[in-house]
Amino acid sequence: MSNKIVLLPGDGIGNEVIYAAKDVLEAISEKYNTEFEFSSYDIGGIALENHGVPLPDETIQACKNADAVLLGAVGDPKWENHPSDLRPERGLLGIRKALDLYANLRPVKGFPKLLHASPLKEEVILGSDLLIVRELTGGLYFGQPSERRDNGNAVVDTLSYTKKEIERIVDKAFQSAQLRNKHLTSVDKANVLESSKLWREIVEEKKSEYPDVTVEHVLVDAAAMKLITNPTQFDVIVTENMFGDILSDEASVLTGSLGMLPSASLAENGVGLYEPAHGSAPDIAGKGIANPIAMILSAAMMLRFSFDKNEEAQAIEDAVEQVLNQDYHTADLKSENGTLVNTVEMTQLIVDAIKQG
Ligand code: NAD
Questions:
Q1: What secondary structure letter does DSSP report for 96?
Q2: Mean pLDDT taken over the chain
Q3: Ligand 1 center to residue 190 CA distance, Å?
Q4: Residue nearest to atom 33 of ligand 1 (CA)
């Protein structure tokens, strides 16, 4: 059976790392006799360039007809001062909405060989292994009205959620915790926000359905502090859209580089989208030095969640760890020892490790 994968390279280093993931999937295809069928479509700045919009209809249609979507990154400084509907990032919000991707899963794991690359003390991050489950379709980024008023002298954004939207993400987080260390931290701002009070009530209601999972509530400001002072206390964190956006970038410092963080965005029954947590990195785009590991680990998440191919996903994750253990690193991982490699070389090392594994 062929597995239809749509590639959305996007902009900047997205365009470089996505082909690393494709090479790795081709190695998996060869080794495990699985067929993948790839097709590529535009999103972000390149779509604005070629089609005048950040998310062309044909891209949406192709994604809806696929079994899974791999996205590089969007964002191009060229479009920075354009109106918000003509900015690359609008393509990303649009595809999440079009595919009803309500749950963003970001695993954050401190690889032993990379502890030195984090600005945090090694003893603080040693053993950290957490999963951030972020709500993706509601909250401030989508609430209406969102506008300037009174001739630009006032402004309003809207934070809105339905009970159903909160329930489904909370369920996903409880289920994720059941597959891990069975501890759920729900992050909110229930001392101030009405939306957070409802969020907390729903977590409390749901916990009787998951008696094997322990639950705690932490305010977002305290969570931000605990993430870098005592990250090993977390297993699964569940939170709303904007809090999740901020906390998951903060958590990236545990891994030493944004280039190490994969993510999965899941729909209730539809196609999943897999992308690195980083952006298009215009400062290094075109230099061939981007770390492809976040993208490659995103492809592993795709095999696990969309294609139920655990063995193949594990083979990719093992290959990445093996190459890191052999002291190969890309420039972002700032190792004093070991061998510095570029995007293509790192990809080839991982491909070779899969073939030999
Ligand atoms: P960024 O993630 O692109 O880069 C932040 C820093 O991390 C840069 O110094 C960059 O060189 C480095 N970096 C990121 N990924 C790396 C990798 N794989 N290997 C080595 N170094 C890496 O964030 P930014 O600079 O704030 O944003 C740049 C553009 O990307 C903006 O237009 C922004 O809107 C967009 N963006 C897109 C996404 C997405 O597509 N999901 C996410 C975040 C930002």
A1: H
A2: 95
A3: 31
A4: 75
